[in-house]
Amino acid sequence: MNIRIIDIARMAGVSTGTVDRVLHNRGRVSEDKRAKVEKVLKEINYEPNMVARFLASKKSYKFAVLAPTYSSGDYWELVCEGINRATDELKKFNISTEYFLFNQYDRFSFVNAINAFKEKDFDGVLIATLFGDYVIKLSKELDAKELPYIYIDSGISGQKDLSYFGGDSFGTGHIAAKLLLGEIGAEADIIIAHIRFKYKEISVQMKTRERGFMEYMDSHNFTGKIHHIEINPDDFTKSLGELENIIRNSKNIVGGIVLNSRIYELVALLDKLDTDLQAKIKLIGHDAIERNISGLKNGKISFILSQRPELQGYDALKAMGNYFLFKQLPQKVNYMPIDILIKENVDYYNNYKL
User: Fold this and answer.
1) Is 271 exposed, middle or buried (0-12, 13-18, 19+ CB in 10 A)?
2) I want to staple 195 with a disulfide (CB 3.0 to 4.6 A). Which of 43, 105, 262, 303 is the partner?
3) CA 128/CA 67 separation, integer angstroms
4) What pTM was computed for the model?
């Protein structure tokens, strides 16, 4: 029988997380729950023997990770911290990872990372899906080689990925629109700010979030005007003037949203306006990174939507490991919780540690 962790959890009457902690001897488990799990393991003669046979075989696995470069406090730092934590836990099973990093605003950098990855042999790969067309092309090559891969950050439908771990980007767009309409009403102007550097790239996640956002607006009688503004943090003169004109000419409160983790860039730009204009805009952003949390706490951002980036990376690598070690097939789609953060609850959210 191909008995999975979820089956053991059901037989023992505990959570899958409890079973995982018992099997890998990590974290806290009450004596009562540990006894229940160990009783089931003994009855089915499952995990202990399988682990022993694996360790005796000396077999090893190496996984590649295609992910963006990051600076301290960035969204992708949190994702990679989760991957690193899972790697540390799987080391005893002779599992290792190697990163191939790329500039998330430069598709040519992504191609270079792919080429470097292809020069080596791996058993599986985790892929950050920022550049959709290139990811699909790579996926087809991996399909031909029968090399399993897992998507993180944003899913791409119609592919043969082993699994996806990340947020429901379309659903997040819906939630963002609902929250913003509650703040500004259906007749107000809305600014969708695209923050870019050298290359004008829009990720799969951003496109999907915007589709969800617009679909909600269209289906909820939104009659205001939506302004798309491109902000260059290195030269904000043009975008600052556009922002000022929109806010000054609006009779109502204006809504503002950034579709990736960089709402802090819009906050910094708005700080250059008169305080009376700053008071006329309500902002919603994504991802609980430090710079966004600062804007939330000082009242410049109304809401932050977060999708547990550390947990994404952690769960994705653990799923790949379990697939090879225990022949455990993960669910095709694994959505992270969509957490709605405000200044009154963000400290409790920050207390959570993976």
Assistant:
1) exposed
2) 262
3) 5
4) 0.79
> Measured between alpha carbons, how far is 34 from 110 in angstroms, rounded to an integer?
45
CA distance 166 to 266: 25
Give CA–CA dist 111/102, Å, rounded: 8
Domain spanning 169-306: CATH superfamily: Response regulator (3.40.50.2300)
Residue that has been written with the tokens 């902002």 in this structure: 283
Q: Does domain 5-55 have CATH number 1.10.260.40?
A: yes
User: Residues spanned by CATH 3.40.50.2300 within the chain?
Assistant: 59-164+308-336, 169-306
Angle at 228 between CA 225 and CA 234, to 5 degrees: 145
Angle at 310 between CA 289 and CA 145, to 5 degrees: 125
* Confidence tier at 319 by pLDDT (50, 70, 90): very high
Residue type, 176: A
Q: What's the length of the chain?
A: 354
- Compute the radius of gyration of the chain from its Cα atoms: 23
Mean pLDDT of all residues in 133-147? 96
Contact 243, 270 (CB under 8 A): yes
Single-letter amino acid, residue 181: L
Q: What is the mean pLDDT of the chain?
A: 90
CATH 1.10.260.40 in the chain: give the residue spans: 5-55
* Both structure tokens of 191: 């600014």
- Class of residue 207 by CB neighbours under 10 A (exposed 0-12, middle 13-18, buried 19+): middle
CA nearest to 255, candidates 219, 213, 293? 213
Range with the lowest mean pLDDT among 20-29, 171-180, 241-250, 298-307? 20-29
Q: Domain 59-164+308-336: which topology?
A: Rossmann fold (3.40.50)
